[in-house]
Amino acid sequence: MKTIIDGLHKAFESRVRLGIMSILAVNASLDFNALKEYLGVTDGNLASHLRALEKEKFIQVQKSFIGRKPNTRYFITKVGKKAFDDHLATLEKLIESQK
Q1: CA–CA dist 84, 87 (Å, integer)
Q2: Mean pLDDT score of the chain, rounded to an integer?
Q3: Which of 10, 18, 70, 75 is paired with 32 by a 20 to 30 Å CA distance?
Q4: What is the Cα–Cα distance from 3 to 7, expressed in whole angstroms?
Q5: Residue-wise pLDDT tens digits, 4-34
Q6: Is pLDDT above 90 for 67?
Q7: Inter-axis angle of helices 78-97 and 15-26, nearest 10
Q8: pTM of the predicted structure, to 2 decimals
Q9: Is the per-residue pLDDT at 60 higher than 80?
Q10: Distance between CA atoms of residues 66 and 56, nearest Å
Q11: Sheet with 69-76, side-by-side order of all strands
Q12: Measured between alpha carbons, how far is residue 72 from residues 9, 17, 58, 81 in Å?
């Protein structure tokens, strides 16, 4: 039997991953330091969550250099945007069903 919560994606259960996807959904791309500052997490914590989302193909990484400094930028993929939108729509349905 299918339930309303079947539409929630397990990848977004973490508040950090939910935050990453929310931020990237409204920004074309952001670098690692900007994401870290927005979310207030450690380098290691952010890196592990970014890897998990990248593994799901929800985000992509773009590495470049600014001058001599490496710069890593992240952006949401079409697959990631669809999965995130579906997740949010399910949350909205769940909330509406409880009114």
Answers
A1: 5
A2: 94
A3: 10
A4: 8
A5: 788 899 999 999 999 999 999 999 999 999 9
A6: yes
A7: 120
A8: 0.91
A9: yes
A10: 28
A11: 30-31, 69-76, 59-66
A12: 26, 17, 16, 20
On the question of pLDDT at 61 being above 80, the answer is yes
Q: In sequence order, what are the residues at sequence separation of 6 or more whose Cβ sits closer than 8 angstroms to the Cβ of residue 20?
A: 35, 39, 46, 49, 50, 53, 59, 74
CATH number at residue 36: 1.10.10.10
| 67 torsion bin: left (phi>0), alpha (psi -120 to 50), beta (else) | left
**CA dist list (Å): 33 to 9, 26, 72, 90:** 26, 17, 9, 31
Alpha carbons 25 and 70: distance in angstroms, whole number: 24
In terms of residue numbers, what domain contains 43?
Answer: 12-97
For residue 5, tell me if it sits in a domain.
no
Q: Give me the DSSP letters along 32-55.
A: HHHHHHHHT--HHHHHHHHHHHHH
